[in-house]
Amino acid sequence: MINVFQPSLGDDELAAVGEVFKTSWIGRGTKVAEFEEAWAAHLGVGRSHVTSTNSCTEATFLAMELFGIGPGDEVVLPTVNFVGAANAVAAHGARPVFCDVDPELLNPTVEDIERCLTPKTRGVLLLHYGGRPGHIVEIAKLCQERGIWLMEDAANAQSSSVDGKAVGTFGDISAWSFDWGKIAVALDGGILYAKDPAVTAEAAKRAYLGMAQSSGFSEAHRTQTRWWEFEVSSFSRRSIMNDVQAAVGTTQLAKLRDFVKRRRLIAEFYDSAIAEVPGLRTPPPLPDGHESSYYIYWVQMDPAIRDAVARQLFDEGIYTTFRYQLLHKVDAYGSDAVLPSAEKAAASTLCLPIHQALSDSDIGRVVDTLARAVRDRTHG
Ligand SMILES: *Cc1c(COP(=O)(O)O)cnc(C)c1O
């Protein structure tokens, strides 16, 4: 089976995990600090702006806590979205307000966001669909003008930028994921970035039981006090990464540039090969100055054949999917929004396999099988 997403883990990661085992310390320690440092350097920001978590979802929940949203507040987010984003808003008693997206890009435009702003809007929780920066520059400007916060869920965008500025550093808070399905993985884990280092520090405290100071070995060396005593500044959960995860994450981060390079080649191959296939539309070209992480590659076709094409590909050993199910259609969020562009996109889009382990013959097979599946249904 050719997978749609797949991590590239091997001897390097096993060796990194082995090193951690030898230290007999697998909890949060020096490896986590190294990973945070490496991620900050990757973003081109100071170390004090980032802290790690056990997942991107948890970082998003923490962010909503830090923004202080509650009942009566609204947060605008695209309906083509990961379920955890809307859960983080709703769990704090605020209302997720789902906005439409550009039907070809699956990212919201400034107008899509603007149309949803009301006096109750506290912030915007943006996703960079497929790893493309989208309209981040304009949306950040809009949020600033309106005096509302911007959070970037940059899980799709580990290595994306606009004119050299890393995606995830445009908003007030951002989060990345390193779960099994992302480009660089840490088995599980997340990074939270905040523009204000004081917010990062507060997030770090809340990610570890709301403890007002560090504890353990390092603190024992530093202080003459009883290091097992602590103060609590918030009633928080335990949402931290450990050294095993971080060692894998740092090893993967060193390969991220190569992973993305391979994914770009695959996307370019798909772009040119699929352009020849009648009935299929490839994603619009990237604007000048934009770098994508190529996390998702998608094609669009007649909605009447999309599901049957996906089924045929599956039967022939090629796994495709659609990301992400429209959240305004999920009953639990109680939305009555009508979002025609997103609905059109959700009916016509199919996400193809894209990951760095795909061989040239794999991607050739994807295109040939896809072309045949579409041709069979277009010409009877
Ligand atoms: C994977 C993903 C997440 C969730 O990340 P976890 O680390 O698994 O919590 C959130 N948002 C988007 C857009 C994702 O792709």
From TrEMBL:
Lineage, highest ranks first: Bacteria, Bacillati, Actinomycetota, Actinomycetes, Pseudonocardiales
Keyword Transferase appears in the UniProt entry: yes
Source organism superkingdom: Bacteria
Family, similarity comment: Belongs to the DegT/DnrJ/EryC1 family.
Modified residues (N6-(pyridoxal phosphate)lysine): K182
Species of provenance: Amycolatopsis lurida NRRL 2430
Annotated GO MF terms: pyridoxal phosphate binding; transaminase activity
Name of the protein described by the UniProt record: Glutamine--scyllo-inositol aminotransferase
Keyword entries, A-Z: Aminotransferase, Antibiotic biosynthesis, Pyridoxal phosphate, Transferase
GO BP term (any one): antibiotic biosynthetic process
Entry cofactors: pyridoxal 5'-phosphate
Active site as annotated: K182 (proton acceptor)
